[in-house]
Amino acid sequence: MQIESPGPVITGTLAESARTGASIPRRGLVHNRNFVLLACAQGISNVGDFFFTTTLLVWIYDLTHQAGAVGSIWVAEYAPIFLLGPFAGVFVDRWNRRTTMLTADIARAALTLIPLLVAGALRLPAIYVSVFVLGAFSRFFMPAKAALLQAIVPEEQRGQAASVSQTLMAISFILGPAIAAPLYTLVGPTLALAINALSFGVSALCVSLMRVPREQVHPYAYQAQEANSQQGLQLVLREFQEGLTFVRKTRTLLVLILISLLAMLGAGALNSLDIIFVAQRLHSPTSLYGTLMAAGGVGVLVGAVVCGLLGKRITPKAMVSWGVMLLGVGLIVYSFQTIFLAAVILNFLICIPQAGLNIGFGPLIMGVTPGKMMGRVQSVLDTSMFGFSLLSATLASFLGQLVRVDILFGLCGGLIVLAGILSLFLLPAHEGQPETAMVAENAGDLHP
């Protein structure tokens, strides 16, 4: 089982469109060419990502048979999120979002192949370096994608768009791990890494075919700002501070960070040590890890379809709160399993509410965030979530050698349940006007 981090005001986006003359198409999503291309890019890239991640986990375990070495792959992935963090969001908000995504995809296509260029004792360090640099480029790609999605999808269709995105993620979740683990057993890691590199190339092609008005992909006009006395690092720090201030004054975002702290502390340990759980507690070969992951993917797919059908009856707040709580309860039960088939079935059931969590998270963020600050806000949230997950993965790599994995999973499940309970009481039912007012107050600061 693997817990994904949750993905991504209306006044901000529509007001910007009105000022610039741009409009967001109100047709169905299937007729929204830009969304279809972005969804195709995401879906293809996700398959490659799951191929890559599953292969690396099995590969490192084969090389070392150590929990610390397996857990370190997550440290390498999360470290750029923690180190670059909101500073990446500052540049995403300043740069052309489409160009940023293209550059990141092309770079990641090449960097994926680094582990194949070395052998022997250097191979394990090369894997960690590759994952670290890939994560660094992803810090620019992900906020840019969230901001672009906000620009091309109208508010009333964002729940549906989130459901489509989660469905694509679930399909990737099913296909990637299920094929990657046995494929590694048959032919080794080379083909999986090549597939991941190719997926980034296809994603770049889809993004290049998008046709979005410049006002939406590059909303900031910085010429006037850059003519001011504030230049270089001083300007970056100023915009970084603006993003932090906005998050600090927005209750929805603060609560999401709080529950993410608790949930990702638990999720980081699970993602790091699940393959160890398969080998030690379920007494199964690691080649079956992909089957376990695929069962979770089917659960996410079912959950995404259900949430898509019930999207207008269930609020994003309810999806997030109950999704987190049920996920935590499921993890506690999962920690007691010793039979592989039972774990597969339970993993399927646990991941159904995970889909609701992921679908509800994005609309909550977009509903309170102006489009021109989306990069910084998304980066602050990503840094918070993955920073906590990095801490959890680091602790899990150490504790996994001292404490039984099932005990760690039970404790992590308790943290996730606590996060769900807190979100029920702390997340506001609706929040929008305070953010709009704040943007108006700061308009002079943001656009002199």
Automatic annotation (TrEMBL):
Do you know which Gene3D superfamilies this protein is assigned to?
A: MFS general substrate transporter like domains
Keyword Heme attached: no
Q: What is this protein called?
A: Major facilitator superfamily MFS_1
What are the entry keywords?
A: Cell membrane, Membrane, Transmembrane, Transmembrane helix, Transport
Residue ranges crossing the lipid bilayer per the database entry: 35-61, 73-92, 124-142, 253-277, 289-311, 318-336, 342-368, 380-401, 407-427
Tell me the membrane topology, using the record's own terms: Multi-pass membrane protein
Main location group: membrane
Which species is the source of this protein?
Answer: Ktedonobacter racemifer DSM 44963
Looking at the Swiss-Prot or TrEMBL record, what is one Pfam family this protein matches? MFS_1
Answer yes or no on keyword Transmembrane helix: yes
| Any one of the GO CC terms | plasma membrane
The Major facilitator superfamily (MFS) profile domain is annotated at 34-431
Q: Name one GO molecular function term.
A: transmembrane transporter activity
| Location in or out of the cell | Cell membrane
